[in-house]
Design brief:
The complex is a heterotrimer of chains A (429), B (93) and C (258). With 429 residues, chain A is α/β, with parallel strands linked by helices. Helices cover 33% and strands 27% of the residues of chain A. Chain A folds into 3 domains: 201 residues, FAD/NAD(P)-binding domain (3-Layer(bba) Sandwich); 105 residues, 2-Layer Sandwich (D-Amino Acid Oxidase, Chain A, domain 2); 53 residues. With 258 residues, chain C is α/β, with parallel strands linked by helices. Classes of the chains: A alpha/beta (429), B alpha+beta (93), C alpha/beta (258). At the A-B interface, helix 4, strand 11, helix 7, helix 8 and strand 15 of A face helix 1, helix 3, helix 4 and strand 6 of B. Bound molecules: flavin-adenine dinucleotide (FAD) and iron/sulfur cluster (2 copies). The site of one iron/sulfur cluster has 13 residues of chain B, from helix 4.
């Protein structure tokens, strides 16, 4: 059997990050990617939180093909016929280096793959791995088509579906209740129009998230990220909610209906849809993280469940890069010790635990069950929208005082047994 | 008027394999399944019943999101990624 | 017998998006043209059958900055060696310049009994390059080959003609351009791709070939189809009414009933 020191399965952000660190240290590494190029199969919403990973491979990011630094954060809560948009502004978002950037994966991943190759790693596109080879419980290599290639260690960075790792018994098969479907359109708009519509300085970007009516009360929301010459507009919806719903709603219709809303139409007016894409998102939180290292293998990125949906922000890309980096570090140590067994690779989990990856997932431990509360996606967005609607309504009827108006709405929508219970459980997240 | 889903898929690049990468065991659909989840969850609207009431999937337009696989509780699907140079190829996303 | 296969890489046409009538090639990966893959497959098959000793893939980068990477596919498909001619002066060459550079490179490679080409490239398909190179090198040329056999110092080809198949023989050295019916090119497996990494690959400039930067003899003014206005007529009513109105409209436009 032909051999290399390390095989990385999957040339997404997690796999490429691992390969970059390994190639830099002179480890012989080969990345196998099933797409025409890295990024050809990958979908994200669109925002990479760079801040947590800026110090990992610091030389890389200055030349990364990001779309726009996010300067405006908007959250829109939607009721039927009423909505409220809140801008979350903080000097800390924009002071110094921006904390996050919008991205498109075909461009970003392809660029990173080139950087990895410049460091001396082999990145093989159009190469689907069909099997993780096991011998006495140890992962000894991979099979692609008829070819079997051995490796001291395999980095499993195959993404959310875990097809290979579940077939090899290293992880469980993904379940609907722990996953969301995310899909989007990339809609082309001239840069000037984007900057006018979202009140941006030239080159700056906006992130706008929507909760409430857009998912008809199902877990999830809508997102909008401004790219250089396009916007990414999409829906995230919990698979379990989607599947349980029996009113004939089909997932793909949510985006069409959303785009037709009078408050959304002007945002996309004049745009040309350029691409339509979809992907699953792991949302099971830390409880769905599989064993991270075993004899001859490590797991990183979405394949490891390193993804966090905290109501309106999905984070997975920064986790993927960080985990890839830590995987590379652990492999370098294992190589120095000549021990690629579970024990030799065990430092991986330790370093993940002391990094933001598992810490943030741990902090968010209760979010997944908290989010199963349907009121979060129906009642509250609606309530906020209605509250402000009532405060701002002036008509021919005698007006209640402002305080009275607000109080009426608060009493109706926020002060009842259910909401108090929700507030109580929210204290734990 | 919203853009038709077919038109949206028409914007994507699909490199067609000769073999389908999704195969449905329709026996399972007809005997075990209680919710026909695939019909509702697929973001590309690729599932439909044929004249004889058998579930079919237009796998050529598959976005490879895996949603049908995850949501099909009775496990009627044999679902793999298209091999080699095949399947959807995103140019932006 | 040694074979040289001239291989062009071009942007993967399936991946090119058109925006405002302009092809967007930024970020579009290059790949070896379809007919060039047929030519490679034919060459490797001849070697595997014992009719050839060595197969060299020769590629003019023509602005593909990753040509030296992309040509490895030819090595993975079974070519023994590869040569890339990459020179800024040849970023967007016309056919005369392409042929001159290829002819010079074939001479520099030295041993070449059979020179294979695709009938035309996947992007421009001018179908000129094979014939031009053959002429510059003074070789007999056979076009539209759907079968290539070589034995006893000669190449024998079946040619796909419109209504017949012609069998032609030429003494070696000779140039042959092939069509897609000739074979089904292999998709290299991982092992082949890994082995390709250590096969010889050279990159030459025009100076290495003793050539000067070519003066362009061609200027592309536009390659866009003429724009035509659409009528934007929508017909309403029952299917029968729509059909009647449609036929009426076509007749009015002079498309029907003349
Ligand atoms: C709609 C949506 C919105 C999101 N929004 C955000 C956001 O705004 N911010 C954020 O940080 N995160 C977001 N995420 C999450 C983020 O995109 C993922 O967490 C991240 O892409 C995970 O990276 P990865 O490298 O682990 O996996 P992937 O990017 O999925 O990479 C896996 C790679 O492995 C390859 N592969 C799989 N199987 C094989 C095989 N058998 N052989 C060879 N190759 C294989 C795939 O082709 C792919 O390239 C979003 C996700 C979605 C779907
Ligand atoms: S969900 Fe699965 S079992 Fe049910 S109809 Fe669809 S494919 Fe068949
Ligand atoms: S993988 Fe996604 S796009 Fe493909 S058939 Fe299943 S649900 Fe539809």
């Amino acid at each position: 059997m032909e051999r290399v020191e390390c095989i990385v399965v999957g040339g997404g952000l997690a796999g490429l990050s691992a390969a970059y660190g390994l190639a830099e240290a002179g480890v012989e590494v080969m990345v196998l990617e099933r797409g025409d190029y890295s990024g050809a199969k990958n979908v994200t919403g669109g925002r990479l939180y760079l801040k947590p990973i800026r110090d990992i491979y610091p030389e890389l990011w200055d030349e990364a093909p990001f779309e726009r630094p996010v300067a405006r954060e908007l959250v829109t809560m939607m009721a039927e016929g009423a909505h409220t948009t809140v801008e979350i502004a903080s000097d800390r978002f924009t002071a110094g280096a921006p904390q996050s950037y919008t991205v498109l994966r075909a461009r970003l991943d392809q660029w990173l793959a080139e950087k990895v190759m410049e460091k001396g790693a082999m990145v093989v596109p159009n190469m689907k791995v069909d099997e993780l080879l096991r011998e006495d419980g140890r992962v000894i290599g991979i099979r692609a088509g008829e070819d079997e290639i051995g490796a001291d260690v395999v980095v499993v960075a195959e993404g959310v579906l875990r097809l290979l790792s579940s077939a090899a018994g290293l992880a469980t098969q993904p379940k609907a209740r722990h996953h969301a479907l995310g899909y989007k359109e990339v809609i082309e708009l001239p840069p000037g129009v984007i900057e006018d519509r979202w009140h941006l300085n030239p080159g700056e970007g906006a992130a706008q998230l929507f909760m409430g009516e857009c998912t008809k009360g199902m877990m999830g929301g809508a997102f909008l990220y401004t790219n250089r010459e396009s916007i990414s507009l999409g829906i995230v919806v919990g698979m379990e909610d989607m599947r349980r719903r029996r009113d004939g709603t089909e997932s793909w219709q949510l985006l069409d209906e959303f785009k037709e809303l009078p408050q959304i139409r002007p945002l996309v007016a004049g745009g040309t849809v350029a691409e339509y894409s979809a992907h699953a998102i792991p949302e099971g939180g830390i409880s769905q993280v599989p064993r991270l290292a075993g004899d001859g293998y490590l797991v990183a990125g979405d394949a490891a469940g390193f993804c966090l949906n905290a109501l309106v922000t999905v984070r997975g890309m920064d986790f993927a890069v960080a985990a890839g980096h830590l995987a590379a570090e652990a492999i370098k140590r294992a190589k120095a010790a000549g021990d690629f067994s579970a024990a030799g690779l065990a430092s991986y989990e330790g370093s993940l635990r002391s990094s933001f990856v598992l810490r943030d997932l741990e902090t968010a431990r209760t979010i997944p069950s908290f989010m199963e509360n349907p009121r979060l996606f129906t009642h509250y967005p609606r309530a906020v929208a209605r509250l402000l609607e009532s405060v701002y309504t002036v008509d021919e009827r005698p007006q209640d005082g402002l305080v009275k108006k607000a109080w009426k709405s608060v009493r109706r929508d926020f002060l009842n047994v259910a909401t108090v219970k929700d507030a109580w459980s929210a204290r734990r997240i | 008027m919203p853009m038709k889903i077919d038109a949206k898929l028409g914007l994507d690049v699909f490199k067609l394999d000769k073999e389908p990468h999704i195969v449905i065991d329709t026996e399972v659909c007809n005997t075990v399944c209680t919710d026909d989840a695939c019909l509702y969850v697929c973001p590309a609207d690729l599932y439909e019943r044929d004249d004889q009431g058998r579930m079919t999937v237009n796998w050529e337009g598959c976005l490879e999101c895996g949603t049908c696989l995850i949501c099909c509780d009775p496990r009627a699907l044999s679902w793999k990624y298209p091999g080699g140079p095949y399947g959807v190829q995103y140019r932006m996303s | 017998m040694d074979i040289v296969v001239c291989v062009k890489t071009n942007p993967d046409l399936e991946m090119v998006r058109v925006k405002d009538r302009v092809a967007q090639t930024e970020g579009v990966p290059y790949k070896i043209g379809d007919l060039e893959k047929n030519a490679l497959e034919a060459a490797v098959a001849l070697r595997e059958a014992g009719a050839a000793a060595k197969v060299t893939a020769l590629c003019l980068a023509e602005g593909n900055r990753k040509a030296a990477e992309d040509i490895k596919t030819a090595l993975a498909m079974g070519a023994d060696e590869a040569v890339v001619v990459d020179d800024p002066a040849l970023a967007d060459p016309d056919e005369a310049a392409v042929a001159a550079a290829l002819a010079a490179a074939v001479k520099k490679i030295g041993a070449c009994d059979l020179l294979l080409f695709g009938e035309g490239s996947s992007d421009n398909y001018t179908g000129q390059v094979g014939a031009r190179v053959a002429e510059l090198l003074g070789l007999p040329q056979i076009g539209y080959a759907r079968k290539v056999e070589a034995a006893d110092g000669a190449v024998r080809c079946e040619r796909s003609m419109d209504d017949m198949i012609e069998t032609v023989e030429a003494p070696l050295p000779a140039a042959v351009t092939v069509v897609s019916e000739i074979n089904e090119p292999r998709i290299p497996g991982l092992m082949q791709i890994m082995k390709a990494k250590s096969k010889p690959l050279q990159v030459w400039s025009l100076a290495d070939l003793g050539l000067e930067a070519p003066a362009p003899v061609r200027e592309i003014v536009s390659n866009l189809a003429k724009e035509q206005d659409r009528k934007h007529i929508v017909f309403e009513g029952t299917a029968a009414e729509q059909a009647d109105a449609f036929v009426d409209a076509l007749t009015r436009e002079g498309v029907l009933g003349r």
